[in-house]
Specification:
The complex is a heterodimer of chains A (112) and B (654). Chain A is an all-alpha fold. Helix content of chain A is 67%, strand content 0%. In chain B, 54% of the residues are buried. Classes of the chains: A mainly alpha (112), B alpha+beta (654).
């Protein structure tokens, strides 16, 4: 019984220490504000998504055309608008500055 | 031991409560260190809960009867593996498993996405809220660590649960049910934070697929268990608790399709939020059903009294989901519109409508008897014909759409293109249908349509692989560059096998029953002759019983069967079906027998001949293979997405 309670107490202390760690490591930060995307960064993200969508759509159209799922006529009718969309998205992205230099991390955000 | 388990649970509850309260405050007031602290609390909850789980497992392994839970669900003669499986055999243990899986999933999902701070700051309190409820239940309502003076032996385990399937079926279902909390937490986090871009979808894509796969495999294993162990002659009884697992699976199937439209076209953002919320709340509803005591089901915990708590929590989560989606509608509006009703996205939309319609009609079938009893005091039941009607109405068009969808191009398809791509599958389906019609398969129109549509889907999938192979030069290149698409096709092929197996074993099954069969007498069914030769007794460590000895022949095969009954310690009786798997027909000869009287050797024998039923189980392997292909990480895509979201991550801190 005693050992179980002692183990539980050690566990509780370790958990409290781990939870309090951000405050212990950084007791007096210059800023405690949680970062958030500003409107420029949000717009940048929207454009990046639009660009990826347009490029993926082009890739898919090419593939479907090669496999015969999309006829030549359909391909010709669709490829132009898709290329224009992709070009517009790329231009819009190129025309903008990187949202905020300090927001771009040294390493890319890790994705699951 | 028990005090350690109890202390660990209280500590875990404190951690998730902190993650919820402090996390909400930190996200609201934009406090960086507090948000990180709340995140740490959520991460710490899993190892602490694991200690509680280990304590319970050790108690079960040692058959420590001072634990009320161990006494209720095990006995000293219960084999060790089944003693461990009692962990999820009772309501308290299964709640602990829910909590353990939830804290584990939450910890991993949050850790992997920790750099997406704006989103994670709100995801943590959502996970915290869900875990808070389960932690509260375990600490204050339904604890597995209650103690008593040790009785000489325990109550033992129900015979039907003493089965290898029970080692895997419930945990897989829990991995699926709880897994749906990950997309839900990220979706709600996205709504709360206002980050309604695709980040939450990217973060949860594989989680959803994994949860969906676990739920699917868990249900298939459950169906196989019911088929081989319960001995009623079928594999799915439309039992409310079975339906409770099917509904979130259907909702998440719809989500997995509609989310592709959001990724490729930027459409259906509101609909996707609704589907994620529906899937998660249905998984909670399923957990409620098994514990509410409102149902009399072989799968439900009859002695549990936590139903009211679950109902209250479910109501909170439904209100929270609806309110958040409603409040964030302006952020979820999209400019893109459906270009044509004949396009890939349109077929996905039809597929979604059918899946949700099927899901909701099943939900109504489950709710109606409960509501009828609660409101009008009348006991009503919704039986097989209701479910069969809607399965045919929605399921058959769904099967057909599985073949149509991949053949239609995104955005719009001209009639000329459609005619060209549909020609081969359409011909294959018509030829198959005509042959089946000529062979007399019109005894069931639903079965005939299922086979015909299955032929259409099979040919369209094969065509997709062949055309893709010709375009890319090799299968490995084709699949590695389009994992999600071709993994999806493999899953579709699994569903085709499933549909053929279900149609064969239900629409075209033969049932023969002979009461008062004496030794030497025979029964014939679908080309098999089964002769009863005599009776023999059986005895095991905790049961005694009898077996009817049968010899059978037909379709070029000769085999023996021995159905019977067993009586276990505690007067629990089980029907022991005997099944022959015919390799030629891929079907089964399923038999069950009961003594016709108290004495003598006369039996009542039931024979079910189920054509193609084994395709259902084979479908499970293909289903897992397809899911794995679709889930497998794509390095090129990972780099592209990482680059896209690099701007959304902050430089230091979390």
């Amino acid at each position: 019984m005693e050992w179980a309670l002692a183990l539980a107490a050690i566990l509780a202390v370790a958990a409290v220490f781990f939870v309090a760690r951000p405050f212990l490591r950084d007791p007096a930060p210059a800023s405690d504000r949680l970062d958030e995307l500003d409107p420029a960064a949000r717009r940048h993200l929207e454009l990046a998504e639009e660009r990826d969508r347009a490029l993926a759509a082009l890739k898919e159209l090419e593939f479907d055309h090669r496999t015969g799922k999309v006829s030549d006529d359909d391909y010709r009718a669709q490829v132009g608008p898709l290329r224009r969309r992709a070009a517009e998205a790329l231009r819009a992205l190129d025309g903008r500055e990187t949202p905020s230099r300090e927001r771009v991390p040294a390493t890319h955000e890790r994705l699951p | 031991m028990a005090p350690l388990g109890r202390a660990a649970l209280i500590l875990a509850f404190g951690l998730v409560a902190y993650a919820f309260v402090a996390g909400s405050y930190a996200a609201w007031k934009r406090r960086r260190r507090l948000a990180l602290s709340a995140q740490n609390a959520l991460l710490a909850a899993f190892p602490v809960t694991l200690i509680a789980a280990v304590v319970l497992l050790v108690a079960l392994g040692r058959r420590d009867m001072t634990f009320v839970y161990v006494w209720q669900h095990t006995s000293h003669d219960l084999p060790l593996a089944y003693a461990f499986s009692a962990f999820w055999g009772g309501p308290e243990g299964s709640l602990l498993l829910w909590f353990l899986v939830l804290t584990g999933y939450a910890g991993i999902a949050v850790w992997l996405n920790r750099r997406s701070r704006e989103l994670i700051a709100w995801v943590v309190p959502v996970f915290g809220l869900i875990a808070f409820f389960f932690g509260f239940m375990l600490c204050f309502v339904s604890s597995p660590f209650n103690l008593q003076p040790a009785p000489p032996d325990g109550n033992g385990m129900v015979p039907s649960l003493q089965n290898p399937y029970m080692l895997a079926h419930p945990p897989l279902l829990y991995l699926g049910y709880v897994g749906l909390s990950v997309p839900f937490a990220f979706a709600m986090g996205a709504l709360l934070s206002g980050r309604t871009d695709e980040r939450w979808i990217v973060a949860t894509r594989r989680w959803t697929l994994a949860a969906w796969t676990f739920l699917g495999v868990g249900q298939l294993l459950g169906a196989h268990w019911a088929y081989t162990e319960i001995g009623w002659g079928g594999y799915y009884a439309w039992d409310p608790v079975e339906n409770a697992a099917l509904m979130p699976w259907l909702a998440s199937t719809a989500f997995l399709h509609s989310v592709m439209i959001q990724e490729k076209r930027g459409m259906l953002k509101v609909w996707n939020m609704v589907l994620v919320a529906l899937a998660f709340n249905l998984s909670l509803f399923g957990t409620f059903l098994t514990r509410s005591g409102v149902l009399d089901s072989i799968h439900a915990f009859s002695k549990s009294s936590v139903g009211g708590w679950f109902l209250g929590f479910l109501a909170v989560m439904v209100v929270l989901s609806v309110a958040l989606i409603y409040l964030r509608l302006p952020l979820l509006r999209t400019k893109t519109r459906l270009e044509s009703l004949v396009s890939r996205e349109a077929t996905f939309l039809y597929n979604n409508l059918l899946l949700v319609a099927l899901c909701l009609t099943i939900l109504w079938g489950v709710l109606y008897p409960v509501l009828s009893e609660a409101v009008r005091g009348q006991t009503r039941s919704v039986s097989k014909p209701y479910y069969d009607f809607f399965l045919h109405t929605f399921g058959l068009p769904l099967l057909l759409l599985m073949g149509l969808g991949p053949l239609v191009a995104w955005r719009r398809a001209s009639l000329r293109s459609l005619g060209k791509t549909f020609l081969v599958p359409f011909t294959g389906a018509v030829v198959t249908g005509a042959i089946l019609l000529a062979l007399g398969f019109d005894s069931s129109w639903a079965g005939l349509l299922a086979y015909t549509f299955a032929a259409f889907v099979t040919v369209s999938i094969l065509l997709e692989f062949v055309r893709g192979r010709l375009a890319t030069g090799s299968f490995s290149r084709l699949i590695s560059r389009n994992r999600r698409r071709y993994g999806g096709y493999l899953v579709h092929a699994a569903v085709v096998l499933l549909a053929i197996g279900i149609a064969g074993s239900s629409a075209y099954q033969t049932i023969r029953e002979n009461t008062h069969l004496r030794p030497g007498q025979s029964i014939t069914a679908a080309g098999y002759t089964i002769t009863y030769t005599g009776l023999t007794g059986t005895k095991g460590p905790d049961y005694t019983g009898y077996r009817a000895l049968l010899t059978a022949s037909g379709h070029g095969e000769r085999f023996s069967l021995s159905p019977g009954q067993s009586v276990y310690t505690g007067d629990n009786q089980s029907n022991d079906a005997s099944i022959y798997h015919d390799p030629r027909t891929l079907g089964d000869v399923f038999t069950k027998a009961a003594l016709a009287g108290r004495h003598g050797t006369t039996i009542d024998l039931q024979v079910y001949v189920k054509p193609l039923v084994n395709l259902i189980w084979a479908a499970g392997f293909l289903f897992v293979a397809g899911s794995l292909v679709a889930m497998w990480p794509d390095a090129v895509e990972q780099r592209r997405l990482a680059a896209r979201y690099a701007a959304g991550a902050a430089p230091v801190g979390i």
